[in-house]
Amino acid sequence: MSTQSNRLTPTPVRQDAICMCALGGACSSFEPGHAVHLIQSRLVSATPAEWLDAIVTSVDATEGTVLVHTLDGRAVSLWNGSGAAGALEPGTPVAFHERYHALSVGGRLFNALVL
């Protein structure tokens, strides 16, 4: 007698995978907008000339979105699942590293997805 295989194909497994930040826990992903990886923090430290100064213009903590305007007037909409929106309010000065998708808020580093 043979046993029936209960193995899942890759597609349902990929669809069921969800980051813990969507459930209120700590981020379990290092994709843009989730947890900061050690290598990401080292890369932004190694490229200080690429930081852009910006001002927060709006925040939606329930959606995790932040709208910032760089000092040259460009609007950048960002998403972060690990609490950046909860740590900000309009008028807060921040720094944004576009190449390595990082947002620095008072020395705290967030991984930010550009929307």
Explained architecture:
This protein has helices at 10-16, 38-46, and strands at residues 51-60, 65-70, 75-79, 93-97, 102-105, 108-111, 113-114. With 115 residues, the protein is an alpha+beta fold. A 7-stranded antiparallel sheet has the order 6-5-4-1-2-3-7, with helices on one face. The chain is globular and about 30 Å long. Mean pLDDT is 82; it is low at 11-16.
Q: Which features does this protein show?
A:
OB fold (Dihydrolipoamide Acetyltransferase, E2P), seven-stranded antiparallel beta sheet, alpha+beta, globular, 115 residues
Number of helices in the DSSP assignment:
2
Number of strands: 7
Low-confidence stretches: 11-16
Largest sheet: 7 strands, antiparallel
The structural domain count equals 1
The CATH class:
Mainly Beta
Task: Give the overall form.
Answer: globular
Strand order of the largest sheet: 6-5-4-1-2-3-7
Return Rg in Å.
18 Å
Structural class by helix and strand composition: alpha+beta
User: What fold name goes in the CATH topology slot?
Assistant: OB fold (Dihydrolipoamide Acetyltransferase, E2P)
Helix percentage range: 10-25%
N-to-C order of helices and strands:
HHEEEEEEE
Compact overview of the structure:
14% of the residues lie in helices and 31% in strands. It is of the alpha+beta class and 115 residues long. The radius of gyration is 18 Å and the shape is globular.
